[in-house]
Amino acid sequence: MNIVGISACTSGIAHTYIAKEKLVKVGQELGHNVRIETQGTIGVEDELTAEEIKNADLVIIAADIKVSGKERFKDKRVVEIPTELAIKAPKQLYKKIEAELHTNK
Amino acid sequence: MLKKLQLKKHALTAISYMLPLVVASGLLIAIGNLAGGQVIENYKESFTVASALTSLGVLGMGLLAPVISAGIAYSIADRPGIAPGLLMGLIANAIGAGFLGGMLGGYLVGYFIVFLKNHIKVPKWAEGLLPMMIIPLISSLVIGLLIFFVLGVPIVWATEGLTSFLTSMQGSTKFVFGAIMGGMAAFDFGGPVNKVASLFADGLLLEGIYEPEAVKILASMVPPFGVTISWVLSKVFKKRKYSPKEEENIKIAFPMGICMITEGVIPIAAVDIVRVVTSCTLGAAVGGGLSMMWDIGSPVPSGGMFIVPAMNHPLLFLLALSIGSLVTGIMLFLWKKEPTDDEDSYFDDEEEFDLSSIKIS
């Protein structure tokens, strides 16, 4: 699957980037193409392009706080989770997502 | 219902906007105070650079309640929440309802704006007026009056009650309070639990209570120092406790710890969550308890080792910090298992999580 997403945590200096790293790495291991935009205290980095969002099959928003730019995902399937989940159990998360998507087809 | 309101997420969003403000203002106060600055009473007379820094920091601290309130209202109601949210925070400042009042004002005005957005229908010619005038005016007016005349009163009581309770605490009560604060502040290394303790301490600072702030600073530094101590012990006694990758992480976590950034410990905790979290929480609780009991106060909310000289008892603070860090360090050293050389365990070890509430929409 092509997956795009956003990560954002309260301090915006650590959890945000760990969540991104986990989602991308574990996602790749499971054969997904993952792109995550970070919204840390420094501002938006690695911003998703319109092209990437258009081609995405799924959006993962791993955030403890309000994220900006959600309207970009209007017609997309979106999963919203706390960063803790992306950090501690990314594999289970992907398995769960795959299962959900499979049953809802 | 409660879950749908997402109270916590809104508070965390507000805290994320508040943090840089508190850090910058706090450090300005610290630098100003250390250089002999005082809050400027009369700007028409001449004043020193140091006094200018202190005053700027104090002014910044005064923005705490408005920023919290505006942050919460923005998180709930998006852009229309910001202006009314700032106003609600100013009311909280004015009537002495502090950060509690600011939080309440933010929630109320935020939800009220959402209600207005959903229910007010205007003719086409007035659509431009809706976000520019109608929503900000009506929401500020209604919720503002509500806080001024009704809700503000119990909040002021609560703030005063809390303040007098904290100042009247003695001996063991103080230790227990400090231990809980410290444990919470260290528990998730800068995550949401830490931020709750942190917000509490910052709020009390506005009421002129400095002790919880010292506990918070201490508890934020115990985890990185404690982990570093356990690593040093493992080198001294030649017992392998950390993989090479973890050692690299510790070398990053320690300098971050000096600056009071706990997050450097996360990669180390992630591979051995129970042992690291338990040891850090306990160490911070012991240090926090001592710090409270010894009446150590910090007028500055953030800045790590650099603002220790600004505290009322710098040496006692260092002692409490050392004891807390030693507890964490020794406990980790004794408890930690020899690492397996599997470098990928960072990605393989997962706790069982209940994922049933995850919905794809």
TrEMBL record, chain A:
Residues 1-99 form the PTS EIIB type-2 domain. This is PTS system, fructose-specific IIB component. It is an enzyme of class 2 (transferase). GO terms for cellular component: plasma membrane. It comes from the Bacteria. GO terms for molecular function: kinase activity; protein-N(PI)-phosphohistidine-fructose phosphotransferase system transporter activity; protein-phosphocysteine-sugar phosphotransferase activity. PANTHER family: FRUCTOSE-LIKE PERMEASE, FRUCTOSE-LIKE PTS SYSTEM EIIBC COMPONENT-RELATED. Signal peptide: none annotated. Gene3D superfamilies: 3.40.50.2300. GO terms for biological process: phosphoenolpyruvate-dependent sugar phosphotransferase system.
UniProtKB/TrEMBL annotation, chain B:
GO terms for molecular function: carbohydrate:proton symporter activity; protein-N(PI)-phosphohistidine-sugar phosphotransferase activity; protein-phosphocysteine-sugar phosphotransferase activity. The chain crosses the membrane at residues 12-35, 47-74, 86-113, 133-155, 175-194, 214-233, 276-294, 315-335. Coiled coil: none annotated. It is found in: Cell inner membrane. GO terms for cellular component: plasma membrane. It holds the Pfam family PTS_EIIC. Keywords: Cell membrane, Membrane, Phosphotransferase system, Sugar transport, Transmembrane, Transmembrane helix, Transport. Residues 7-335 form the PTS EIIC type-2 domain. GO terms for biological process: phosphoenolpyruvate-dependent sugar phosphotransferase system. The keyword Membrane applies. It is a multi-pass membrane protein. This is PTS EIIC type-2 domain-containing protein.
